Amino acid sequence: MASSIEIAGLRKNYGSLSVLDDISVSIKAGEFLTLLGPSGSGKTTLLMTIAGFVRPNAGSIKVDGREIVTLAPHKRNIGMVFQNYALFPHMSVGENVAYPLKLRGVGRGERDDRAKRALAAVRMEQYADRRIDQLSGGQRQRVAVARAIVFEPNIILMDEPLSALDKRLREEMQVELKRLHETLGRTIVYVTHDQKEALTMSDRVAVLKSGRIRQIASPRDIYDKPVDRFVADFIGDSG
Ligand code: ADP
């Protein structure tokens, strides 16, 4: 099942620096929304606020109509994929993927079954017994995705998950992630500073600048009808 996310009036300051400046956005259940913007525009902070790792100074985040802004991260039913994978090098692939289930008190047999299924979803089922350091960058990224989906979260957050990969692998993984979104049908909020990636993968793109959403629209509308010079220049920069 996928969840909707309703964000209203979200603010985050670090001292006098306003990092999220009155962010409001409604994300539909099952939507693939990308947060796009230059470095420092607040993308990661917004994602971390949805995940629960950053507490906002003001505003509300509702999932399926329920306020979650004060809820601890592990109670949010949200999967997360980071840029640097954050896998445990001393554990096998299977153990890495099963780890979130262990944290949630799921028994051994069920853990193994569900880890296998998650690995199959990213086409890595034959690698369960390998060590992480025996995998390529692309394979590690797949394992990180398997770990994020293993407890069947309704929402998956991804923070520049492909930025460490070379161009060929990045394009291959873009196709994989799109396929996964279609098969799983979960809500995905995806962060990138890569315009092309945002335009090819998303249902909608939110362009951020200095902690504000400048435009939120379909890739086509962002491309054809940018609301201002900033969006036009940023999108036009994709090369
Ligand atoms: P982006 O993901 O778009 O690159 P971030 O959300 O990482 O942007 O950062 C937005 C701004 O907030 C940056 O200016 C960054 O330096 C600042 N920032 C982020 N986290 C912290 C923190 N924990 N303390 C102070 N400043 C922070």
From TrEMBL:
Residues represented out of the complete protein = 1 to 239 of 362
Record's keyword annotation contains Membrane: yes
Q: How does it assemble?
A: The complex is composed of two ATP-binding proteins (PotA), two transmembrane proteins (PotB and PotC) and a solute-binding protein (PotD).
Main function: Part of the ABC transporter complex PotABCD involved in spermidine/putrescine import. Responsible for energy coupling to the transport system.
Q: Where are the transmembrane segments?
A: none
Q: Which GO terms describe its biological process?
A: putrescine transport
- List, alphabetically, the GO terms of the cellular component aspect: ATP-binding cassette (ABC) transporter complex
Domain of life of the native organism: Bacteria
> Keyword annotations for this protein?
ATP-binding, Cell membrane, Membrane, Nucleotide-binding, Translocase, Transport
- Under Enzyme Commission nomenclature, its number is 7.6.2.11
Q: Which family does this protein fall into? A: Belongs to the ABC transporter superfamily. Spermidine/putrescine importer (TC 3.A.1.11.1) family.
What GO molecular functions are on record for this protein? ABC-type polyamine transporter activity; ATP binding; ATP hydrolysis activity
Cite the ABC transporter domain residue spans from the record.
5-235
Q: What is this protein called?
A: Spermidine/putrescine import ATP-binding protein PotA
The protein's organism comes out as Skermanella stibiiresistens SB22
> Its catalytic activity?
ATP + H2O + polyamine-[polyamine-binding protein]Side 1 = ADP + phosphate + polyamineSide 2 + [polyamine-binding protein]Side 1
